[in-house]
Each structure stands twice: as structure tokens, then as C-alpha cells.
């Protein structure tokens, strides 16, 4: 299964909320588009100088997505068949033949994009955790050049998806790799954000890509975290460096750098204990780790990844600000997008901080962590089709 399909399926809480909300907004005050009268099989035949036109309404194009192979739907050209004195009527569908006439197409509901509709869109985006500032900016961009026009749910979804992708595209960047050996990747985050699992998945993927990886179990105060890393290390064939329980994490990080250098490792991934951003003592401990690492290599850590739990909603913004100040965060990984109805927080993070988003996770399996693709994410979040 392509990651887009998995993302869309597991992001159902966010996508269904947006989709249902957009449907409700268009229905509220919307009107069906006028349809051409359907022609019965029993209607009079046209005159010889008339033509019978079979018009197919153009399909609104979906945004082009690379990994998901989402293709633009091109409008079908109208075809014209010259009529004979006694033309043959177009063959109706099965139900049409039973009823003696063709089945009329279901009317498409559309609504004028006015101030009331924009206000409802803002409220919907805020409820999806995009934040007030981002929601206002997105709706303003939607209104530009479209205010006063009649729009369907499908058109609104497409436009919204394009706006979200536009915000996300500048931050969609893979984890940079440097010639420095070992490249030190420090992984930070609050308790339960998924740091340990993310490290295991990244290490496994880098190993498969031909990189030599070493993991340092820097959460020395929690035996379960060390054991979990060792399981991932065994699975990926990656060595895990540990220290006695309760040891100084900064000392472990320093020793791990020496060992990784001796082993000729390409990457050293250092796990850290989960810490709340309002615990000054724990945050100072993180600052100490950074200071000690820089005694070994003043350019380290070369990457500082902040792992965020999508279910925390707007609190993720506070986490980014705090960790960025103390640990000079260089990139983000968002986990647990399958367990939240508020996936829009990732849009707010991109809009406010502009930090690279390296990967997103939608599950516990090894292939449930994937490089971030803004168009795939936007399409999944807004409930657009992958075909």
C-alpha cells in the first residue's frame, strides 16, 4: 500500500472532520447547480439539420502528487454527432431502460463565497488546530480572486489543499547528511512523543540506505527506553551503546561520540530522556548534553530533531519554541497523526516557525514513518482522492 493511501486512511479523523465540515458549509445556504433537462427515449426525433451533443462536465483537476501518483483529471472534450433524418437515440443506462428514460445526474450543490462562508471556513480550520493566524491567512488566500463566486465542496477542497501544500512545501526537507563522521543527531521531545520509536525507524532506514549507524541510549533513567532501543537495534543490525541506569546522560553522549568515531560510523543518533518544557531542571540537563557534545566537536550536534506528538494539538507550538531556544532545534518529526482529529497543527507549525519537517508517522510499523510530502499531506488532510 502506498504511503499516501495509508496516510489518508489513518488520518481519517482529520480528513473526515474537514470533509464533513466543508460539506455542511456548502449545504448551508448553497443551491444546486441548474442541470440540463434529460432527454427521454420517447421524445421526438430532431430535424435533419440539428445535432445531438453529448456533453460531459469537466472534472475539477486534483493537485499532482508525486509519491501517491495522483493524476490530474483532464476534462473530456465535448463530442458532436451529426444527426440523420432518423437518428438512433443514445442508449440509456440499465435503470433508464427500466424507467423508459435516462437517469438525470445528481445536482451539484454550490454556494457563493461570501463573508459568512469565509467566517465558517475560519472556524472549521481553527477547530482542525491550524491556529487563528494560519486559519485567517488561508481563508484570505482562498477568497482572493474568488470572492462572490459559486463554489462546490470539491472545488473548496481542491483550493484548500493547494493552500495547505503551498504553506508546507518550503519546509518539506529530508534530514541533511554531512561528510562529517560521525554525524551527530540529537533527538529530543517531551514524554511519550515517540522519540525512541522514531530513532529505531530512522536508524533502520539509514542502515538500509547503506549508512553505518550507531545509537546511544541517552535516556539512562528509564530502563524500558533502553530495552526498546536495543530491540530496534537488533532488528536493524545497529549497535546500541548503553550506560548503567542512572548514569549522567551527558557523559554517555560524550563517550558515544568517541566510540562512534572509532567505529567509523556515519551517523550517531542520541536518544534523550523525555522532558516537559516547563521543567527547568530537565531542560537544563538537555543544555548540558549539548555543551558536553560540543567539547568533543564544536559543530555538534549536526542535527537536533524534535519529535512531536500530533495529539498534543496547539501545545506543540509551545514545545517547539522552548526546545528551539534551549537545544537549537534544526528539524521536526511529527508522530501519531493516525490518532488525532487535529492534524492541522502541522500546518500551523510550518506557518509559524518554518522549521524543516523531515518525516511524519502514522503507526508503529517500520514503514509507518515516511519523508514528509506536502502535497500528499494536504490531499489526505482535506480528504481528496488519490486517483
What does this entry look like structurally?
The protein is an alpha/beta fold and 387 residues long. The chain has 13 helices and 13 strands. The chain has helices at 3-10, 12-27, 94-99, 115-127, 132-143, 153-168, 195-208, 223-236, 249-262, 280-296, 315-327, 345-353, 374-381, and strands at residues 31-32, 51-54, 79-82, 109-112, 150-152, 183-188, 213-216, 240-241, 267-271, 303-309, 331-335, 357-361, 369-371. The strands form three sheets. Strands 8-7-9-6-10-11-12-13 form an eight-stranded mixed beta sheet, with helices on both faces. It has a three-stranded antiparallel beta sheet with strand order 1-4-5. It has a two-stranded antiparallel sheet with strand order 2-3. Helix 6 runs antiparallel to helix 13 (374-381). The longest helix is centred in the C-terminal third of the chain and has 17 residues, at 280-296. It is elongated. The chain starts with a helix and ends in a 6-residue tail after the last helix.
- Output the number of helix runs: 13
Q: If strands are numbered along the chain, what order do they take across the biggest sheet?
A: 8-7-9-6-10-11-12-13
Distance between the termini: 14 Å
Briefly note the structural class of the backbone: alpha/beta
Percent of residues in helical segments? Answer: 40-55%
Tally of strands: 13
Order of helices and strands: HHEEEHEHHEHEHEHEHEHEHEHEEH
Mean pLDDT, rounded to whole units?
Answer: 78
Strand content: 5-15%
Poorly predicted segments: 10-15, 36-91, 93-103
How many strands, what sense, and barrel or not for the largest sheet?
8 strands, mixed
- Write down the Rg: 27 Å
Amino acid at each position: 500500500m502506498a504511503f499516501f493511501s495509508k496516510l489518508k486512511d489513518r488520518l481519517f479523523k482529520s480528513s473526515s472532520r474537514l470533509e464533513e465540515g466543508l460539506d455542511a458549509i456548502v449545504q448551508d445556504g448553497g443551491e444546486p447547480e441548474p442541470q440540463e433537462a434529460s432527454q427521454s427515449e420517447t421524445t421526438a426525433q430532431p430535424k435533419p439539420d440539428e445535432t445531438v451533443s453529448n456533453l460531459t462536465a469537466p472534472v475539477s483537476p486534483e493537485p499532482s502528487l508525486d509519491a501517491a501518483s495522483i493524476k490530474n483529471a483532464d476534462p473530456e472534450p465535448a463530442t458532436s454527432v451529426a444527426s440523420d433524418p432518423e437518428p438512433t437515440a443514445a442508449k440509456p443506462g440499465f435503470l433508464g431502460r427500466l424507467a423508459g428514460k435516462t437517469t438525470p445526474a445528481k445536482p451539484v450543490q454550490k454556494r457563493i463565497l461570501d463573508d459568512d462562508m469565509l467566517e465558517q471556513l475560519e472556524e472549521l480550520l481553527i477547530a482542525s488546530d491550524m491556529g487563528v493566524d494560519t486559519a485567517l491567512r488561508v481563508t484570505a488566500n482562498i477568497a482572493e480572486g474568488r470572492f462572490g463566486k459559486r463554489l462546490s465542496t470539491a472545488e473548496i477542497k481542491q483550493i484548500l489543499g493547494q493552500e495547505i501544500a503551498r504553506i508546507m512545501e518550503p519546509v518539506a526537507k529530508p534530514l541533511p547528511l554531512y561528510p562529517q563522521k560521525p554525524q551527530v543527531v540529537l533527538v529530543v521531545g517531551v514524554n511519550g512523543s515517540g522519540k525512541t520509536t522514531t530513532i529505531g525507524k530512522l536508524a533502520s532506514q539509514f542502515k538500509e540506505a547503506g549508512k553505518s549507524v550507531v545509537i546511544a541510549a541517552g535516556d539512562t533513567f528509564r530502563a524500558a527506553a533502553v530495552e526498546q532501543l536495543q530491540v530496534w537495534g537488533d532488528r536493524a543490525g545497529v549497535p546500541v551503546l548503553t550506560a548503567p541506569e542512572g548514569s549522567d546522560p551527558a557523559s554517555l553522549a560524550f563517550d558515544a561520540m568517541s566510540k562512534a568515531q572509532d567505529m567509523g560510523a556515519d551517523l550517531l543518533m542520541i536518544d534523550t530522556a523525555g522532558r516537559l518544557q516547563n521543567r527547568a531542571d530537565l531542560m537544563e540537563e538537555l543544555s548540558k548534553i549539548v555543551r558536553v557534545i560540543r567539547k568533543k566537536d564544536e559543530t555538534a550536534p549536526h542535527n537536533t530533531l524534535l519529535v512531536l506528538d500530533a495529539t498534543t494539538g496547539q501545545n506543540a507550538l509551545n514545545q517547539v519554541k522552548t526546545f528551539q531556544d534551549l537545544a537549537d532545534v534544526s528539524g521536526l518529526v511529527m508522530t501519531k497523526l493516525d490518532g488525532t482529529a487535529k492534524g492541522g497543527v502541522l500546518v500551523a507549525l510550518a506557518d509559524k516557525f518554518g522549521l524543516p519537517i523531515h518525516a511524519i508517522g502514522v503507526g508503529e510499523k517500520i514503514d509507518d514513518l515516511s519523508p514528509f510530502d506536502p502535497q500528499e499531506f494536504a490531499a489526505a488532510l482535506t480528504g481528496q482522492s488519490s486517483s
